[in-house]
Amino acid sequence: MPCYFAIIGAKDNPIYEAEFTNPQLNQFPPELKELNPFILHASLDILEDLQWQAHPQSGASTGTSGGFLRSRSSANNSNCYLGKIDHFYGLAITGYLSYGNMKFVMIHSGNTNSGLPVTIEDGPVKSFYQEVHELYIKTLMNPFYKLNEPITSPVFDSKVRTLAKRYLTK
Amino acid sequence: MSHKIINPSTSVAQHPAPQGYDYTIGPQQTLPDLPQSMGPSSASTFASTGISTTGPSAASAASSTNLASGPSVYSSSLHPLAHTQQVSLAAYAFLFQEMVAQARNASKSVAEIELRLHRHGYHLGVRLLELLNFRSSVNASSRSAFFKTSTAGPSSTSATVSSSAPSAQLHGYHSHGSGDAAGATAAAAAAAAADDGHALAHSISHMKRRDLTMVEILQFVHSTVWTYLFGRPSDDLVKSSDRDNEFMIVDHAPLLTRFISSTNVQCDFFVCGVVEGVLDSACFPCAVTVHSVPDDKFPEKAVFVVRFESAVLEREALRA
Q1: Last residue of a domain, one of B203, B220, B254
Q2: Is B64's CB within 8 Å of A81's CB?
């Protein structure tokens, strides 16, 4: 299933973006593809609301807007992985926050033919985010990399794509 | 960055080597091991020649393996026990002295020297926030060893510091008091993690919570950051009775400046920078200053005053 992944910095500036698609089988429809960054940035408001909640994944009980949208399958104490935070016409958007409040956001698209909403499997998606988080920290350990700069390293890029292949494509 | 225009992702790639993420081009589409020439960007560049679609993908695969095999920041492990080399206090003092001298030569006023030291520390703090939190969430078996050594740390390391041994621990988790067995298993785990760079995040079931309140994040600075840098937690964490947004971290004998006799320049501004870097990047904007408050028992006692901006207080009042 095609995904669009982006890392957004503390000043809402793009750090990194990638599309995970398989050219033969599934792609974002061309009219939607250009909208991806807009859809993704539209969900940042919800993400910033969840950022300061003690239990961002506890579901509808928080009583805030967007509470009913999130998947409730993984309710634990961690507040890095936020689960499904938003949706847009059958696309699902998941989010993750690093300790330095870098925003990791991803659009998941289902089968392009059926208009059914996408189901998010929290396990693999969470693992994907955690491993990208580790890669991000390794990037940050580079003394020549400054906070909130775009990550242009080809090694980072290829590692993220390998992770996407392992966790996100079925 | 602002002078370049971000092209739509379907347009033709104009750069000769689209290696890695280029924000002027936009996201690339393909996954590894898929023929790259099927993607729209490369299709439009290579299909016009009408020949060999395997050429570019094979070349890029070869170059990517070259990139992956070379030493890079991505091939070393983040495990707390993967880097146990410790800096001797003498070497460190030499480096810090050079840093102060460089700042002093380049500055015109005392405030400027302090600002330069502050800036050096800031970059360190930004990185420590991510790194130390991530290390705390590494899986349970090595975490227990990690906490054991870090709690065993203070007594032994402070003994080292007070006896002014030359090998005081600047980066000491895994210092003196750790059990050999626990250390050995943890080191083996670290070695295994170093083999495969991804094993570390994969083994984490629950990431450590992000710190959401002023007290939580200050406790992180007080214990975790101080232990990582100086081998012991700071001596006290006090809330100001006068102002709501003011907190104080007390250090009876700052390790960084123990060889610097009292001058009118406060070299502990480096540590202020570290603290401010941690707090700033955790979205707690603040100003940190240091004041030396000598008393009878501790002639070098330093107090780091953290003043949060009013936005932090407002946010906490809203979320409470």
Answers
A1: B203
A2: no
Which contiguous run of DSSP H or E holds residue A123? helix A122-141
How far apart are the C-alpha atoms of A46 and B51, rounded to whole Å?
Answer: 48
User: For residue B103, what pLDDT is reported?
Assistant: 92
* pTM attached to this predicted model: 0.74
Q: Which of residues 38-97 of A touch B (CB under 8 A)?
A: 51-54, 76-81, 97
Are residues B126 and A162, on separate chains, in Cβ contact within 8 Å?
A: no
Whether residue A140 is contained in a domain is answered as yes
Q: How many domains in chain B?
A: 3
A141 close to B (CB below 8 A): yes
Cβ atoms of B288 and B269 closer than 8 Å = no
The answer to whether residue B53 sits within a structural domain is yes
Contact check, Cβ <8 Å, A100/B130: yes
B39: nearest CB among A23, A100, A152: A23
Q: Which range of residues forms the domain containing residue A154?
A: 3-52+77-168
pLDDT in tens, B260-278: 876 778 888 999 999 999 9
Q: Are A11 and A148 in contact (CB under 8 A)?
A: yes
Q: Show the domain range for B223.
A: 96-130+210-319
What is the number of domains present in chain A? Answer: 1
- Same domain for B255 and B126, yes or no, is yes
CATH number at residue B262: 3.30.1380.20
